[in-house]
Amino acid sequence: MHGPNIGWYIVLAGMLFVIGAIGVLVRRSPLIILLSVEIMLNGANLALIAFARHYGHEDGQVFAIAVMAIAASEVVVGLGLIVAMGRRNVELDVDKLRTLRG
Amino acid sequence: MRTIDAAAWVCLLAPLAATTTIALLGNRLSRRHAGYLSTGTTMISFAGAIAAFAAMLGESPAARAHATTSWTWLSAAQYHFGFTLLTDQLSVMMMLIVSGVGSLIVAYSVGYMDGEDEERRFFAYMSLFVFSMLLLVQSGNLLLLLAGWGMVGLSSYLLIGFYQERPEAIAAAKKAFVINAFGDATFVLALFLLIQHTGRLDFAGVFAHSPHGGTVANLIALGLLGGALAKSAQIPLHTWLPDAMEGPTPVSALIHAATMVTAGVYLIVRTHPLFEFAPKVADLAAGLGAATLVMAGLIALVQTDIKRVIAYSTMSQIGYMFVGAAAGAYPNGMFHLMTHAFFKALLFLAAGIIIHALTGEQDIRRMGGLGKAMPHTRRAFLVGSLALVGIPPFAGFFSKDSIIAATLDRGAFGYCLFAACLAGAFLTGLYTFRLYFVVFGGEQSEFAKEHLHKPQGKLEGPLSMVWTVTALTGLSAVGGFLQFGRVWHPLTTWLDPVAQPFVDASNAKEAIASICAVVLGAAGIYLAHAVYAAKTIKVPKPVTLLEKKFYWDELYDALLYKPAELISQGLGRLVEQPLIAGSIGELTRGFRLGAGGLGRAQNGLVRSYALAVASGVAILAVVFLSTR
């Protein structure tokens, strides 16, 4: 098998995931949080594809494509909401957006 | 279906039809028509009983028992109990008494209850009562008999508490129900033993397979006796009967004459082989009957409520029946049950006319001199009283004296019973005629002058009340001629295949018993006349022991009610308050605190939620990795 060992892929995927998670936790702009969630999803996708390659199965790739499709639709909805909020001059800060806490 | 079975079903189901119709139609049925419906169906029931009796006359004595099963009522493992009616000599006799006297009493109620609120409910209950009693006497196995037994208790509860706005009536109804429930419980225990030892509950099978003698036989008889004592108001389960006078007068008549209290005597006669297997228990039953008849006679001497005096006389007369049935003189006990049904219904219904005329007054101290105003009622009451005391040729003479004679055939114990019965005869004369002279004799009392109101016309009450009392007067006068000692005994012959007596008093014993009883009864009447009518002897002061009814109520209060109250109060203070109420309070406080703390975690900050999720996943990851 060519290319680096599976371990490297997993480390890279873990780093991507952690970077995304830190972004979700520390940033306050919903736009950036959405972006960070995408990074986390990509980390997970990388791990799926790495394992698919490692075991010689296509299942992981199929899952990755499904995740991409879902992530794309999620971004459409999320971005739409954020743009709508921006147009209505709502302050884009998740710490202030807490009126729905119930 | 044979005629006799059809007649038996008609007899049983007609009163039930009245109950359901009245209950279902409600307001659409007028009050008057509810009464007529109830009377009519009870008479149909009587017609059914007569038809069954007539069909039975044409058969040979050995082939007169007919069982008819409509369906298998209860099936469990290898036990199957059918909804079976048994029509034989004994049950047909009870059917005739229950539906015959019952229909007279229900007809009487049409006049007595006229204008009362809720007449419909009254008549529905009355029909239910008659149905329950018919189910009791017609059932072909002990399980169905138990069902009727319980329903009689229920109906009596409903009717005693009919005036539901009166607290005393409710208390009396509850008392009757609880004491009867105690009797039901011992009855059920006896049935359990029978199932365990014979595996069946039909009469013939039980009698054939039940153990002869020994502890089990004694326990079975004792359980049945407990049920009979409670239903028939004998010592020590008698205290409910006088209180049951809170119900309307026709109800008292129904309870005392046609239904309920006679059930105990019927049970003993019906299951007499079980008592013959346990002679000690039979002796106990006779002894309790004798004790009751003397005690009730003594208490009746000082009662001042007209219905209560008659109620105590019922207890006393049922005591005679117990003595007769338990001493082995079954036909004599049944004979007295029948004549007693006539004259006790008569006395109650005549008393009802008086109470009705005096707008509800029942205290005999406020009555007096009613004889002149109500001569017909006085005559009816006199016939009933003479029949009760047992003066020839009225009904009680024939039936009571045959029981007293039978006791002479039972050895030493029989002589004790004989003495008690004679004492009872004297007391009966005394208290019955005390009542008669106080109510009817002398000058009219102030209260009577003021309140006595007679309906327009020649009658002393509504028509339905007068004709039923007249009919019962006739029955009380001539009903006794059905049987006379050893000379003329169709009833004994009739009942012979079902309940063969094992005592047979000789002619000499019959004569001795009759002479003693009549002389003592007459002496009682003479004494009552001297004290209450001629006033040659001063009225003695009532004895407190008698006024307190031998302290039975107080005894049960101290023995059962007080300890139960103390225990429950103690449990309430020591267990319920600190443990249950306290722990519930603490638990709710804990939950409130916890919920308040958790609620603060829901702050609406998305990032703190994300942190919680992330840390949760991190912890799970660590846990899974470390426990792999």
What attributes does this structure have?
heterodimer, A: 102 residues, mainly alpha, Helix Hairpins, B: 628 residues, two-stranded antiparallel sheet, 3% strand
What's the short story on this structure?
The complex is a heterodimer of chains A (102) and B (628). Chain A is mainly alpha-helical and 102 residues long.
Sequence-ordered SSE layout with sheet pairings:
The complex is a heterodimer of chains A (102) and B (628).
Chain A: H1 6-26, H2 30-55, H3 59-87
Helix pairs in contact in A: 1-2, 2-3
Chain B: H1 3-25, H2 31-57, E1 66-76, E2 79-87, H3 89-112, H4 119-138, H5 142-160, H6 167-198, H7 203-209, H8 214-232, H9 240-243, H10 249-258, H11 261-270, H12 272-276, H13 279-300, H14 306-326, H15 330-357, H16 370-373, H17 375-389, H18 395-407, H19 411-440, H20 446-451, H21 463-478, H22 490-495, H23 507-533, H24 544-547, H25 552-601, H26 606-626
Antiparallel strand pairs in B: 1-2
Helix pairs in contact in B: 1-2, 1-4, 2-3, 2-4, 3-4, 3-10, 3-15, 3-21, 4-5, 5-6, 6-8, 8-11, 8-13, 10-15, 11-14, 11-15, 13-14, 13-19, 14-15, 14-18, 14-19, 15-17, 15-18, 15-21, 17-19, 17-21, 18-19, 18-23, 19-23
